[in-house]
Amino acid sequence: MSTGQRQGDNAQGPVHVAIIMDGNGRWAKMRNLPRQEGHRRGLEALRRTVRNADELGIKVLTLYSFSTENWRRPQAEVSFLMGLLRRFVEKDLEELHGSGVRVRIIGGRDDLTPDLRGLVEHAETVTRGNTGMTLVVAFNYGARDEIARAARGLAADVAAGRIAAATIDEAMLSSRLDTHDLPDPELVIRTSGETRISNFLLWQAAYAEFVFTPVLWPDFDRAALEEALAEYRRRERRFGGLAEPADRKVGAA
Ligand code: IPE
Ligand code: IPE
Ligand code: MG
To answer: Is the pTM of this model over 0.85?
Structure first.
């Protein structure tokens, strides 16, 4: 979905903040703790961030929790991360629902166990009518996988004669992505000092502002979130146009 924003509109925003929660393992390593402890503390940071984002008026918060590439990790770590998602949905759903949070899960569902898939669907169904913040959990998410699934759906519709190939445009592809009902993120934050996108929201973040912070995810707190928002508000967004109306006239002459 296009935001239709123009330069200067970010004084108030962002509406949608997406976070690549990175650095749990390094946080644990620095303390001679097992990686799992880093993930456990990472879940606490996640809970804290959901509360803070809601209080700070963010309307959509997307959290990258498990990528399509994270299956490459040792089996024990993968199982642990699956267990954390399960516990999060089981334990936190009631509270999230009570606060009016709408939960959405993006990512491929076919690789999840039936019980996990059931939990995820349950969380979405229960909170569907909520009008508070939307919490988007990107789980088994990879942007390339998401785009490939959307393309497969479109190709099937063309093959069945339901749509004409010539009518496929950006809006139609957007409407087939897992994020079809969400605005694009204006701000993407990555913690832990890494400065890469790691297959996150490649389509949706086309014009997002990126903020990279050295803070490790388990240490991410309200001050770190506020600093990222302040950094976003200092940025000038141009969307391919020119900054000043006067400059635009030069081009038109
Ligand atoms: C982020 O922390 C959590 C997930 C990717 C699931 P990492 O586990 O990637 O932590 P580092 O990068 O090894 O420090
Ligand atoms: C990105 O972190 C994925 C998530 C935060 C879920 P990774 O730690 O998996 O990314 P790379 O491997 O450093 O790019
Ligand atoms: Mg990492």
So the answer is: yes
Whether residue 90 is contained in a domain is answered as yes
Specify the ligand 1 atom closest to the Cα of 81: 6
pLDDT tens profile 114-165: 999 999 999 999 999 999 999 999 999 999 999 999 999 999 999 999 999 9
Assign residue 119 the CATH number of its domain: 3.40.1180.10
Which residues lie near ion ligand 3 (Cβ < 5 Å)? 22
Residues 46-98: pLDDT tens digits?
999 999 999 999 999 999 999 999 999 999 999 999 999 999 999 999 999 99
d(CA 67, CA 78): 11
Probe residue for ligand 1, chosen from 20, 21, 24, 46 as the CB with the greatest number of ligand atoms within 8 Å: 24
CA distances from residue 116 to 34, 76, 84, 93, 105 in whole angstroms, order as listed: 25, 17, 11, 14, 12
| Ligand 2 lined by 65 (C-beta under 6 Å) | yes
Whether 105 is in a domain gets the answer yes
